[in-house]
Fold these 2 entries.
Entry 1:
Amino acid sequence: MSKETPVNLSPETLSRIDEVITHYPVKRSAALPLLHLVQEEKGFISQESAEWIAARLELEPINIYELVTFYPMLRQKPIGRRHIKVCRTLSCALSGAYRTCAEFERHFNTYCGEVSPGGEVTIEFVECLASCGTGPVVMVDDELHEKVDEARACELAVRIKAEAARAPGTGGEQRK
Amino acid sequence: MPEQRRIIFQHIDEPGYSNDLACYLRNGGYTTLRQAFQRKPEELIEEVKRSGLRGRGGAGFSCGLKWSLVDRKSGKPIYLIVNADESEPGTFKDRHIIHQDPHQLLEGMMITCFANNVKQAYIYIRGEFPEGARILERAIAEARAANFVGPNIAGSGYCCEVYVHRGAGAYICGEETGLIESLEGKRPYPRIKPPYFPAVLGLYQCPTIVNNVETLCHVRHIAAVGGAAFAKTGTPGNTGTRIYCVSGHVQKPGCYEFEVGRITMGQLLYEACGGPLPGRKFKAVIPGGSSAKVLKFGERFNGRRKVGTTLEEYNWALEDVPMDFDSLALVGSMGGSGGVIVMDDSVNMVEALGNINAFYAHESCGQCTPCREGSLWMKRITARMAGGGARHGDGALLKSVADQIAGRTICAFGEACAWPTQSFVQKFGDEFGAAGSAAPSAEALAKAEAPRAERTRLV
Amino acid sequence: MISPPKPDLITVNVDGREVAVPKGTNMIEAARAAGVDVPHYCYHPKLTVAGNCRMCLVETGQLAVDPATRAPIMDPATGTQRINWAPRPAIACATNASPGLQIRTTSPLVKDCREGVMEFLLINHPLDCPICDQAGECKLQEQATGYGRGYSRYIEPKNVKPKRTALGPRVTLDDERCILCSRCIRFCKEVVGDDVLGFIDRGSHSTLTCYPGRRLENNYSLNTVDICPVGALTSTDFRFKMRVWFLKQTDSIDAESSAGANTVVWSREGVIYRITPRRNDAVNDTWMADSGRELYKAVRTEGRLADIRTGSGGPGGLDAAIQAAAEVFKANAGACAVVGSGRSSVEEQFLTRSLAEGLKAPAYLVSRVGKGDGILVSADRNPNVRGALVTGLVASLPDRNLSGLASAVDAGRIKAVVSVGEDLSEAGLTGAQLAGISIIYLGTHRNGTSDAAKVVIPTLSVFEKAGTFVNQQFRIQKFSAAVPGPEGAADDLVVLARLIEAAGVRRGQAGGLAAVWSEMEAAVPALAGISYGNIPDSGLLLDGTPWAGLPFVEGESLHFQRVP
């Protein structure tokens, strides 16, 4: 639980961390940016990462732990290789978001919130993604997909599987 | 049928328009900034006051008044925070500005900074816009290279830095003091006001202006055409244009920019948006983001209101209500963020409220008692009702719980989570069971018990 | 003493009652000054304002005046000035007194606010009262009774959170009971500087915790138990031991150090169950150290002296002991020494001095110095060295070792020692030296000196007698007897008075607090004009200037600055 706890961030991440801290007159403000940078590289925030970030910003580990558990986008455990986020708020629900999610669950043989068999995907409900006019709205990793009814969900699922088949190292590893 | 006046949205979805600086400059961009930086900052503030611009983020608070409340005597640095956390359900306008016309926002920002002696600005963008954050950072880098951001802006000697700060999925970060706490690296618990008014004790306890993305774009426009000209558009007290985001059960959902109050609900939904889906009828509409009170088709509103200096009678069907802040407040709702969510007669209002209550229960930060416990309680009640477990008196109970939240919390989230429940139960009492006396009607119960597969699941 | 300058007073009105309060007073305190109770949870007078419980919502108003002329607008119905009440209620804890501010706490709106907040606090709260230690001193119980609706309408499932967490070595946490007021978090951060507690998760699932692997183990952790309004944070030591309504409360002073934190001793039928701090805004606010609370455990340990011993023979009565002591004095006239204690009360030190004078004996004290923590454990671990100075028992600060006494013993100049509670072997005297002199020992626990003593008279601990201490501020503070001592123990003042007589000094009065005080008032300059009964519960500052030049060991702590 010290600065020396090995976290092994890449030099690129470390230099981006150094740079982002300079954006704020008070170091603590860099907490969220650092959490994003670490999660981008590692896939999630481990206890070691949280302690490292706290030490880097001269905070107590509890100060970081409080944030990781508050914000839904920050996670403490690894997820599937692809992250499928289905908006469940009113406008998207009105256009069938629950059916969309069920379609994804069926395709990947998994339930919402879990890592699918083989570590392929994690499907999650999220709240309003601010594209209500083109619902149901789905984000796959950083990409926005609009008007994702059951048919389009099926297409997306097929595409995700195809991309997985082409990508290297697809045997059963969870997303790092 | 009034025409759209696409001023802020002039270039949105325009074929061939790209979000880089070169395109923005080709289309006359940053000319207004150059002119504004030749003027006195106080003059710019006067223009904004004269314009009557009201915030477009949800509260509709006078932008000129907000700027004038800033403490300029403390000697502390003044900050500008752009609220790009667009999270109010039903709202999707800032997304387009950020992704497709980011320099418009930047130009409005820098003019605002210059007018208010701000040397450091942050754009707080919601975490779910990762591409938007990248686009903004690229735009800032371009602008810095061209001296529109950073030291010596447009050769004026004025300097101001801008950084992008990403959120991580919390609606409460859209509340100005919750946003400030989040930017400071803490849990985004809104602050008690008094004493923590951002204009006096904001970011790092310094005077801070928090403005919505669209509002700052209007500032740019005001600097270009002048406050008096701006004030002639829209309607008195509700000046300028605004972007209405229509979603739900209409033929053509999307963003529409009209002069505020120069379009009615009926014109917006039937003519601009093509009316209801085939074979359906409009049932209800939430006019200003899910926090706004719901309005029922078939309702009538009448009374007297001030128009100019005279008192006028009004007698409106819902379709007749002008879409401005004051009129919507008059009929018991609000203009809010401009997010118009339309529900037709296929919707079970208990389930729709259940969907909304689940949102608020999930997003409550948990700091203060009424919202923390009350929002979850309301969610549990509507979930139980939607699952077939409705009991006698649930409607009255929902209303009573909501009444115990609104007005008693640290921030406006209390009203935001209470108003939907209060208005849904009041307007659609038959589906919720009348206040404590009758059980839900047979028709309503039959609807609730209809096989799930036949209805769109909402909760 | 210079009296403090009069603070600006502002007049506000609470439920029709006018009250003048200093500038900066919040409306909970202003209402208290007007005799009105405003219920609250998260507000604490010694912590920053959080404003999250919403229980203290009240209606606020301003006197109506004509905007143009500023003339008061009258209400024809009552003939008094009309009040414009704000439509929204405001939290009293965050509303500071301003001239003309009106608040009302008995209106239908305020009643509804309180019933609403109470209902909300109870809907996810577990029905633990029958097994919860907080029962009887629980703010939820009190305010539900006083301000709640009296019934619940909640039929949904309740939140489930971790129960029975060992948050630290002395504190147990039940997260289901927690009402998320954040008092504990603010205390640890602001008063102790140990930012170890926080909330995780969100909304109604928010949970108080430490970071995994960290513990709430600072030396002030039990204060979080005191300030927790509910049974979420409880003392592991006190858990399930006793219902609080059976306990008697006695005011006392923490004898751990010269900080002199004010305390309350809770006991039943002669047994102490716990110690909590007592509020004193000039000494310890509402806090005390965990280590000071543990001192009550020493009252009933194995080494507690309970029998009078005379000579190397068996036990005897007090008379026999005094007789034996008299013989020791006679046999060693002119070669006696008296070792008093910085842990004795002022009254005991006064009598110890009389004894030393009567025996023409030098008087010693033993010092105990540790590291001050800057809060309420000062560097001087004797609570009452200044009492010894004030009474004249000693004229300078004590040493750790009684090397002077040791060499006098070796030289044969001292052949008998009366020790009032000090273990001479701990103060540097060897076993051989102890064996070579006659010792009369008064004390509570067995040690090397009591073993070597000719006469052993068990006396009372601080919890079993009454008296005063003078703390590092030179404040004299009272403590009272909470429990009786063990059967064989005698009151120190009675024993000392009889020893003085045994030394040949005629005393007109017997020992006993009142008698000693009338003597002290006359004989001790610093106590002139003070009577025991006149010392307020918050203590009285004495004039410490005669000793201002001494090298006291204490550094800065709460409400104490070292005078250079």
Entry 2:
Amino acid sequence: MSTLPQTQKNTTAQRKPLLSLSLVALGLTLFSAAAPLAAHASDDVVNVYSYRQSFLIDPLVKAYEQKTGANVKVVFASKGLLQRLQSEGINSPADVVLTADINQMAEFEAENLLQPINSATIAANIPAQYRAPDNMWTGLTMRARALYTSKTRVKPGEVTTYEDLAKPHMKGRVCTRSGKHPYNVSLLASVITAKGEKEAEAWLRGVKDNLARRPQGNDRAQVKAVMEGECDVAVGNSYYFGKMITNDKKPEQKEWAAAVNIVFPNQNDRGTHVNVSAAAITKSAKHYAGAVKFLEFLSSDDAQGIYAASNFEYPLKKGVALDPLVASWGAFKADDRNLSEVVSAHTAATKMMDTVGFDH
Amino acid sequence: MPQTVASPDPQSASPRFKLPSIDVWAVGTLAVAVAVAMPILWVLGLALTPSGDIWRHLVDTILGRLVWNTVLLMVGVGVGTFVIGTGTAWIVTMCRFPGKRIFEWALLIPMAVPAYVIAYVYTDLLEYSGPIQGLIRDAFGFETRHDYAFPEIRSLGGAITMMTLVLYPYVYLLARAAFLEQSVCVLEASRTLGKGPWTSFFKVALPLARPSIAVGVSLVMMETLNDFGTVDFFAVPTFTAGIFDVWLNMNSPSGAAQLASMLLMFVIVLVGLERYGRRKQKFHHTSAHIRALPGFQLSAPVATLAFFACAIPVTLGFIIPAWVLGAYAMDFYQDTLDANFLTITGHSLLLSGLAAVIAIVLGVFLAYSLRLGQVSWIRTVTRFAALGYAVPGAVLAIGILMYLGWLDNTIDGWARGTFGVSTGLIFSGTVIAVTFGYVVRFLSLSFGSAEAGLGKITANMDGAARTLGAGPMSTLKRVHLPMMQGSIMTAALLVFVDCMKELPMTVILRPFDFETLATFVHQYASDELLPEASLAALTIVGAGIIPVILLSLTIARARAGQNAQNIEPTLIDLEEAAP
């Protein structure tokens, strides 16, 4: 009998840390759960869901916050923001959506998650062909899906079109990222709108047959692969060229860029495929006025200048100068058919990637 | 089995608060089971909603590839871990050779490395631009890829190799425990009857250990099915990768749910097969006669072979990855620190700790409820509640996201309608959502350990305690919990570490602007920035080593006595924790 009280004593002593630990944990949970709610209280807040990477958006957010004193909270993700917004419904904290690609934005619109942007400023800043007809979204910057060719192993004029990527002389010489990545889906969608599904599929199969390796890595990694001799031609967005050339933090990227020429394809026919980064206001936005203000800033001279200078993108606002480096790549003819055509071919393009088994 | 039928003890006559007719244990068990089942039911429900022509498209294009790749991956990893795990377990248990004592515990250590981390490291080493191929090109003067042949690491074979290297310890652990438990007399009988060591191994020891090995291999296969980080990085189209693709790239939740339901069926078949394989377990160990293990002295060449057989998995599975990450961390730790490393680590610790505590509390509750065993359906319900481990994280994540979104908006709608107040999002996108996911997935670990721990306590104890006037709760607190401490601590650690590594659910369910070590490493490595994330990757590995060391110590203790009776509960717990 004498052992029983002792056992009890021990037990209580040992149980207590567990109990207090769970209480602390619970408290922390509730605190973190309440934190986003607290943010709603203030009115000078804009909550942003961004598919664009933080290193591209942070300078703009900082500039806006400094200028206005507002508090911009950004959530970065490469996938799943739409699904999240959908499941959160009318209670979503998000006010603004930023996408890196027109099709990503089109999906938000198709799922009825957006509301019109009522702003004369934006309408004046951004040309109409880069905005949704119903003002559901606006483009902010433009970029080209360019080709990067090896300076040593690709002769001038050897690759001048997207179609060249599928030709026999490129066998085993092409590198690209995953076919399921929005940039490549949009490129394929643009080929579908230009040539029709049948021809586009033949083209995609041709490119697949010419790949030097399975699609992998990001756009910069393709340029690196060209430098390393793994392949001769890479597909990549134009601004990465500038980002690599000026990368002091990772100087090896300068070497990658130095090994390639940037080629804007299809200059003699439809032009180079271009895409826009876009912004929209969510249907459930709690800070509509603040969101409009933020988007107006993004379309302003200041922000467009930052986009041009620090991100090496093509500003959409007329009169904003290109970065000298970007200007040095020369003017190019863009495939400027209405972006909505590319959007309408998006589903077909996604499926075609599967049908062809581009990544596998 | 102890009975909880109210005993007419004098204390209950005192005017204390009582719940006369509600059985807390039965109701609580049912509540936990329902909460845990919700995400899975949600997925199944969602799968029944029409998905347009997505399904048609999947059947026409990728479905066959998904099934084929998933099967190949599971079979490959299953065979690989079986061979390495069982082989090394047999060698270190039965033979004497240099390094044996170190290998006994060192063979477990690769378990601490998440599959996606090892995949990042080996890609870095073995890809075209990596140091190995660079060296080959320099040495032979090759210029381009076409000049020589080198296996592609980002492939199905690569994924099988990576997962085998970090998952074989599951099989090793259970196979070794089984070999230690076996009566040497049985083996001696086999040898006396004229069988050589090889035949004895294949004809006697291996079949006797089969149930444990089957548990190990099925655990491995479930981990394989669950993997997202590796197959995503290697672009191997498995079910899990397909679910993410259909859901996020094609924006078809119902299509993803249909894939997920198919995957669930896969898992159910797997669990069924595993249980079928285990059904005869009770008939083993007919001889209680146990003596010291023989410890065959190996001749020098054979001993060398044995040494390398054990050294290679440890080197490839742990030493090289840890070395590479360590070297990167020396150069790039500042980058990781600059990226809010401490906050991120705090997030990981908070989530994993929270989930571990909750999983333990619920696991003990369920196990004890099962022990009380008043209601006949409780066994079925608790089994169901412990199914989560078999459900891949990607599937659970979809279910939880949809379920919590619905719950939040329902509560909000009700509150608006009734009180005119919006409650907003209570669960979605919070720490609660992620923790919920972790608990659902890892509850079976804590439940299994608690059940095993309780199973070792004789029912006479319950009887004695109850006769002395203690109620069920008080008996649990004063008698059982102190006795099960070891099992509970082990289970808590296992849950904690599994949560630290968890990737697919964390990616989807985490609050925004909220990185954990796992998501941080995944994001950076996917962006070709492994060196910058190496410190974070090392931290995950470091956390994973703690329970491995504990398990190793346990094994060392078991060996010290050379006696199977000395195996601490932990080993068996892990085995019995298997769903």
